[in-house]
């Protein structure tokens, strides 16, 4: 298993490297300064080891700090479709987030001042490793660089101002992405891994990835049919049932809360909640 992280060195300079337990081995070079750049030029597997840092001495960045595209799948687990009361459609629901809406593992999620309905959504993120356009599902997994945890933090009232989800999904600092890109060779059975979300230690979401309505190859086929995908692009594959907005009473994230998204060997993404300043 290989785990790659984006981070800031102790001097504040952005970089990336390989995580070996509690040690980070820097891989960045002048020619390849970021994880997205290493995916783009195909050098990730051949870069020489550089400086080493203790994990405690660096600050993580979102796995890909600068994705060109972040595409999110809505309503991709039957339990979530059921709890929302929506009709099952024949095609995936796709919306977008912006890069400035994401924070790293260990960084706070920011509850917008304009909502009291700030909800969690634990998800599996797929990171694209090679350019692809109009890819068949049978070939799609060859374009996957790896996986990470994702929290699609949602301002539910803004999400439902109209029929488009985007306004509630991309406030700055509302989504978590991390801690690391985990390569596919590390995972024997991706479908058996469970997406588990805990709010203040309480398990609130828990479903296997195999429960997705549209699996990863199908999602890549569908998305790449209407937009080219590039190395470093991110696909958030949808959240299981159990969201706070559909509980009785509702359960929303507030300042001081801690939310964890765990997906087996892929790791745990942890963020505390703060109010927007």
Automatic annotation (TrEMBL):
Keywords: Hydrolase, Metal-binding. Residues 69-273 form the Fumarylacetoacetase-like C-terminal domain. Transmembrane segments: none annotated. InterPro entries: Fumarylacetoacetase-like_C (IPR011234), Fumarylacetoacetase_C_sf (IPR036663). GO terms for molecular function: hydrolase activity; isomerase activity; metal ion binding. Residues 1-20 are annotated as: Disordered. SUPFAM superfamilies: FAH. GO terms for biological process: carboxylic acid metabolic process. Belongs to the FAH family. This is Fumarylacetoacetate hydrolase family protein. It comes from Sphingobium psychrophilum.
């Amino acid at each position: 298993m290989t785990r790659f992280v984006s981070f800031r060195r102790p001097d504040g300079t952005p970089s990336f490297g390989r995580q070996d337990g509690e040690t980070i081995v820097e891989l960045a070079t002048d020619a390849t300064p970021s994880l997205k750049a290493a995916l783009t030029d195909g050098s990730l597997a051949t870069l020489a080891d550089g400086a080493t840092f203790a994990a405690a001495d660096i600050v993580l960045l979102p796995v890909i700090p600068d994705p060109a595209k972040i595409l999110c799948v809505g309503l991709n687990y039957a339990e979530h479709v059921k709890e929302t009361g929506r009709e099952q459609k024949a095609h995936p629901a796709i919306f977008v987030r912006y890069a400035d809406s994401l924070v790293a593992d260990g960084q706070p999620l920011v509850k917008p001042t304009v909502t009291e309905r700030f909800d969690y959504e634990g998800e599996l993120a797929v990171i694209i490793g090679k350019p692809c356009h109009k890819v068949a599902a049978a070939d799609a997994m060859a374009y996957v660089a790896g996986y990470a945890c994702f929290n699609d933090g949602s301002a539910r009232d803004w999400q439902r101002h109209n029929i488009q989800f985007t306004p509630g999904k991309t406030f700055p600092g509302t989504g978590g992405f991390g801690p690391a890109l985990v390569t596919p060779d590390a995972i024997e059975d991706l479908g058996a891994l469970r997406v588990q979300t805990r709010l203040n230690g309480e398990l609130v979401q828990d479903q296997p990835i195999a429960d997705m309505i549209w699996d990863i190859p199908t999602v890549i086929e569908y998305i790449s049919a209407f937009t080219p995908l590039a190395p470093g692009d991110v696909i958030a594959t949808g959240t299981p049932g159990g969201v706070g907005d559909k509980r009785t009473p509702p359960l929303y994230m507030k300042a001081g809360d801690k939310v964890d998204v765990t997906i087996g060997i892929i790791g745990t993404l942890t963020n505390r909640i703060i109010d927007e300043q």
